[in-house]
Amino acid sequence: MDIPFSLEGRTALIAGASSGFGARFAILFAAAGANVVLGARRTDRTDALAQQIVDAGGRALAVPLDVTDEASVVAAYDAAEAAFGTVDTIIANAGVAAPGRATEVAADRLQTLLDTNFKGVYLVAREGAKRLIASGSREKGNGRIVIVGSITSRQTGDGDSAYAASKAGITHLGRNFAREWIRQGINVNIIHPGYIATEIQGDWYQTAGGEAQIAGFHRRRLQDIESLDPMMLYLSSDASQMVTGSDMVVDDGQSL
Q1: Which family, according to the similarity comment (predicted)?
Q2: Which of 11, 128, 135, 238 has an alpha carbon within 20 to 30 A of 77's alpha carbon?
Q3: Residues 6+ apart with CB under 8 A from 169
Q4: d(Cα 92, Cα 109) in Å, to the nearest integer?
């Protein structure tokens, strides 16, 4: 694994670490030298992944985390601090989808999506910021928060209005957090991946519709999950000291 930026000495809490982007980031950050805290509701998966990281020589801890529940968020940070000290690198990645046209999505599914994709980012980032400020981040300048958005936040389309709007919401939220904490030594940035095959899409890309979507991309291919690695490491590392309030598109040109 190519590691362009070191995270040695950092402690990263990754929300939504049981699959997809979060699981990838956990493996990546451990390889880059960070202490990694894997937060998710599916603890059987995070326990197994944490053990895999430890067996490979890394440092990892799996913690139960429901990002929609403030008490669960607080408990996850408590466990992380007990194991590794203050969390200085926060990856707000947990998210769900509610596919379907706006006229078809039930109100309870919409509420679940907003609770996870917006409220969850708010609670995870806010709790991390509170603890960073209390630990002296203003003087250290060591706080890093990366919010995982989506290129859908910049597009229109059929079948993902609620998801796209939630990602647009956390983009603006992230910029406001960056402004609010700019003098507290905390950098907040947003990364917008393109379309990548992960568990959240199920078998969509094996269907005729999914194949047609790929054929419509300029490069006629899906983006690889590994293509996010350099930007994620950069935004989480000391190298990004002067970068805050930015939203970065990494999508293989899909949104052009």
Answers
A1: Belongs to the short-chain dehydrogenases/reductases (SDR) family.
A2: 238
A3: 117, 118
A4: 21
CB 71 within 8 A of CB 124: no
Beta-strand ranges (E) seen in 121-160 are 143-148
Q: What residue spans define the domains of the chain? A: 11-250
- Pairing mode of beta strands 247-250, 35-40: unpaired
Q: Which residues are catalytic?
A: 163
Q: 30 or 3: whose pLDDT is higher? A: 30
* CA-based nearest residue to 89, from 244, 249, 237: 237
For the stretch 203-229, pLDDT in tens is 878 899 889 989 999 999 999 999 999
Residue where the block lists tokens 């928060």: 145
Q: Which CATH class is domain 11-250?
A: alpha beta
The predicted structure's pLDDT at residue 197: 87
With H, G, I as helix, E, B as strand and everything else as coil, classify residue 97. coil
Taking the C-alpha atoms of residue 134 and residue 210, their distance in angstroms, rounded to an integer, is: 47
Q: Give CA–CA dist 26/17, Å, rounded.
A: 7
Say if residue 158's pLDDT is above 80.
no
Query: Which residue in this structure is represented by tokens 């996850």?
Result: 76
Tokens standing for residue 81 = 């601090």
User: What is the pLDDT averaged over residues 1-19?
Assistant: 92
Instruction: Tell me the per-residue pLDDT of 79-99, one tens digit each, with 9 for 90 and over.
Output: 999 999 999 999 999 899 888
| pLDDT at 182 > cutoff 90 | yes
Nearest one of 250, 244, 198 to 227, comparing CA atoms: 250
